[in-house]
């Protein structure tokens, strides 16, 4: 009987698999996309730093003049207006950062496996000694690591840039859009887009179709988060407190930063409502009637809204998220998106393993 | 030991069977040619053997017991797919690096020397190379892994006659030097006899003939004689193919080495091309050694003409 055992190969030419060699393979295969990613991130980082330098002077004076604690002073208003000029730049950067996860999903994730399948090179790659599972797992992990580190840095930079605007009360890190582009949520969104792109590319097997599907899926969810999902998330477990109305009543769904007097500094207002005698919540019609009565009474007698409501046993309530809960919600968002990304990555590996 | 062994192997693509009930053993140390018409299941069989396709039924192993497609198998099996699918946008040197990084063992020096000897420009992108150069590059990358088994799917299809000659010549030299086993599929029957010493014929998703080529040729003869006595010969020997020309008939039959023939009958040897074509024209004819008898394939087992 013929025997055939593995060959004894010349020494010094074997090297371990998979991490270092696979890192070189990943770099070689995706260096175009990675260089573009780093270049785009560097450009965004420069824009962020530039924007921060512009507001640094006015913000330093704002802080030095004690405006952080007592923003009522007249010079504080002037300084706040000078800082407010920079919000356009911040908004533009927030929009640009929203595009980045989608672009990474479309141009890095979707073609990752789809190109191998479409061009047929999977018949070369998947029959090499590394094996298809290790190849796909290490490629996804390495790219995910690069993308996560890069976007984490960008998210942190944006949070740093936005801090003066937040202190002045021009922006809130709870704000939809801004919430998704800060330190934790931003890399999680990017990771999610990368993994759903990779999954769709593997499922569809056509680069252009997979890119379109990824743009629709990742972009769609990001838009849904901006318009709806973030608001629902940020309403979970909101605290409620009675508030003395000053300068009008904010009722219904609010989703706005708390102005002085309406909530703790840096908190996020979720909803406002009024309860009557017996603690029942007034309907919108009842609130309308109440406001008419109150306006008529306060304009005639000169009493304040707060005094009138107290006299008639009405209470104005606001629910809010305290500032220190921001990181809880960031962790929840980041963990949910990371879990989705992991699920898509695992389904990708399963598809690759079961293909054939 | 068998480098490829299948047992009742079947592969279905949706409702169509690409391969069915395929039981086969290719012994080590051979250059085995896998032939068959289009759609016979050659590529499917090779893809199952290298782990690219998952069997629907049955099983496939390499080197006796190693599951096809496992990491142990992939380290010892090199595969060159049909049309040599390489990364067209990468330079040749990058393909060398890629292969080196994707395998525990890769002899880059040997690969570079071979490519230089073939005058393949190392800094050109793969997509700029001719079809023949791409095929040679793919073979070089596979050989540099020093595999125990080299599997080639239609390696000659894109080559002109001269390149085909050089390709096979190099393959034979490498096999002689390194003692590896080779299984390759091909449509080019005329080239097989020079390169291969073991033959597997697939038709309709099933193995129709398998064995050492010399044994298969020795076990067949072209018998010529009077047409009206053809039935008498059919009772003596299994006939694979019959051709009548006027009052004479030619029968390609499975015979002993020196068959005793009635008066008026002559016996001639058959060429490999005649043998393959005869079997392909008669899908019901088969001659198989069976998976576990591969070590003694010189003994062609009995006829099972259905």
Describe the protein:
The complex is a heterodimer of chains A (356) and B (306). Chain A is an alpha+beta fold. Chain A folds into two domains: 19-235 and 327-354, no CATH class; 239-324, no CATH class. In chain A, 65% of the residues lie in helices and 7% in strands. Chain A is built from ten helices and four strands; from the N terminus they run H-H-H-H-H-H-H-E-E-E-H-H-E-H. Chain A has helices at residues 19-64, 74-84, 87-119, 122-125, 132-168, 185-204, 207-234, 284-301, 305-311, 326-354; strands at residues 239-242, 252-257, 268-275, 315-321. Chain A has a four-stranded antiparallel beta sheet with strand order 1-4-3-2, with no helix packed on it. In chain A, helix 1 runs antiparallel to helix 3 (87-119), helix 5 (132-168) packs antiparallel against helix 10 and helix 6 (185-204) runs parallel beside helix 10 (326-354). Chain A starts with 18 loop residues before the first helix and ends with a helix. In chain B, the strands form three sheets. Chain B has a six-stranded mixed beta sheet with strand order 6-7-8-3-9-10, with helices on both faces. In chain B, strands 2-1-4-5 form a four-stranded antiparallel beta sheet, covered by helices on one side. In chain B, strands 12-13-11-14 form a four-stranded antiparallel beta sheet, with helices on both faces. Chain B is elongated and about 70 Å long. Chain B has a domain at 2-214: Rossmann fold (3-Layer(aba) Sandwich), CATH 3.40.50.300. Chain B is of the alpha/beta class. The longest helix of chain B has 18 residues, at 161-178. Residues 290-306 of chain B have low confidence and may be disordered. Chain B is built from ten helices and 14 strands. Chain B has helices spanning 42-50, 71-76, 92-102, 108-117, 131-143, 161-178, 189-195, 213-218, 230-236, 272-281; strands at residues 2-13, 16-27, 31-35, 57-62, 66-67, 77-80, 149-153, 181-185, 198-203, 206-212, 220-226, 239-245, 248-254, 266-268. Helices cover 32% and strands 29% of the residues of chain B. Classes of the chains: A alpha+beta (356), B alpha/beta (306). The A-B interface holds A 1-4, 6-7, 9-10, 13-17, 21-22, 24-25, 28-29, 119-132, 134-135, 354, 356 and B 1, 3, 27-29, 47, 50-54, 63-64, 71, 74-79, 81, 83, 85-88, 90, 94, 97-107, 138, 145-146, 148, 181, 295.
């Amino acid at each position: 009987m013929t025997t055939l055992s593995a060959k004894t190969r010349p020494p010094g030419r074997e090297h371990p698999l998979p991490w270092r060699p696979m890192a070189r393979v990943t770099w070689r295969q995706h260096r175009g996309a990675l260089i573009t990613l780093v270049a785009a991130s560097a450009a965004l980082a420069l824009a962020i730093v530039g924007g921060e330098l512009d507001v640094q002077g006015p913000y330093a004076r704002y802080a030095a003049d004690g405006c952080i604690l007592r923003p009522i002073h007249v010079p504080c208003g002037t300084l706040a207006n000078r800082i407010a000029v920079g919000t356009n730049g911040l908004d533009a950067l927030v929009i640009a950062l929203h595009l980045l996860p989608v672009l990474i999903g479309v141009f890095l994730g979707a073609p990752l496996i789809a190109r191998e399948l479409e061009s047929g090179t999977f018949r070369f790659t998947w029959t090499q000694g590394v094996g298809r599972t290790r190849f796909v797992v290490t490629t996804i992990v390495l790219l995910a690591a690069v993308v996560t580190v890069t976007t984490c840095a960008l998210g942190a930079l944006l949070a740093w840039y936005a801090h003066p605007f937040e202190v002045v009360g021009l922006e809130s890190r709870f704000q939809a859009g801004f919430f998704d582009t800060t330190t934790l949520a931003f890399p999680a969104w990017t990771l999610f887009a990368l993994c759903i792109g990779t999954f769709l590319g593997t499922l569809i097997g056509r680069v252009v179709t997979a890119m379109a599907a990824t743009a629709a899926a990742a972009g769609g969810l990001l838009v849904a988060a901006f318009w709806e999902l973030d608001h629902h998330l940020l309403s979970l477990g909101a605290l409620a407190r009675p508030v003395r109305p000053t300068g009008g009543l904010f009722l219904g769904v609010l989703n706005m930063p708390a102005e002085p007097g309406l909530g703790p500094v840096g908190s996020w207002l979720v909803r406002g409502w009024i309860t009557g005698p017996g603690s029942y919540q007034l309907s919108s019609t009842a609130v309308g009637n109440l406001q008419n009565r109150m306006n008529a009474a306060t304009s005639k007698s000169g009493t304040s809204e707060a005094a009138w409501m107290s006299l008639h046993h009405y209470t104005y309530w606001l629910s809010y998220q305290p500032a220190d809960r921001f990181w809880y919600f960031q962790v929840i968002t980041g963990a949910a998106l990371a879990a989705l990304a992991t699920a898509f990555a695992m389904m990708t590996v399963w598809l690759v393993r079961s293909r054939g | 030991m068998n480098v490829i062994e299948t047992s009742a192997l079947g592969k279905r693509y949706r409702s169509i069977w690409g391969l069915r009930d395929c039981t086969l053993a290719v012994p080590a140390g051979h250059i085995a040619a896998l032939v068959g018409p289009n759609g016979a299941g050659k590529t499917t069989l090779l893809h199952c053997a290298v782990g690219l396709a998952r069997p629907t039924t049955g099983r496939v192993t390499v080197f006796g017991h190693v599951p096809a497609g496992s990491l142990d198998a992939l380290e010892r099996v090199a595969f060159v797919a049909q049309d040599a699918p390489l990364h067209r946008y990468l330079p040749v040197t990058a393909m060398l690096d890629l292969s080196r990084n994707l395998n525990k063992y890769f002899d880059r020096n040997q690969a570079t020397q071979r490519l230089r000897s073939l005058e393949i420009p190392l800094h050109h992108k793969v997509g700029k190379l001719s079809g023949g150069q791409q095929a040679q590059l793919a073979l070089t990358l596979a050989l540099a892994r020093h595999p125990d088994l080299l599997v080639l799917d239609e390696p000659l299809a894109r080559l002109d006659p001269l390149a085909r000659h050089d390709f096979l010549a190099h393959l034979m030299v490498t096999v002689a030097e390194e003692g590896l086993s080779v299984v390759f599929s091909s449509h080019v029957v005329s080239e097989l006899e020079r390169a291969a010493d073991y033959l597997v014929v697939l038709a309709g998703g099933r193995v129709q003939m398998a064995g050492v080529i010399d044994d298969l040729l020795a076990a067949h003869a072209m018998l010529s004689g009077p047409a009206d006595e053809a039935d008498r010969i059919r009772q003596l020997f299994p006939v694979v193919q019959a051709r009548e020309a006027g009052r004479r008939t030619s029968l390609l039959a499975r015979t002993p080495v020196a068959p005793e023939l009635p008066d008026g009958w002559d016996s001639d040897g058959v060429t490999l091309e005649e043998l393959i074509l005869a079997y392909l024209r008669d899908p019901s004819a088969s001659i198989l050694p069976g998976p576990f008898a591969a070590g003694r394939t010189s003994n062609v087992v009995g006829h099972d003409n259905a």
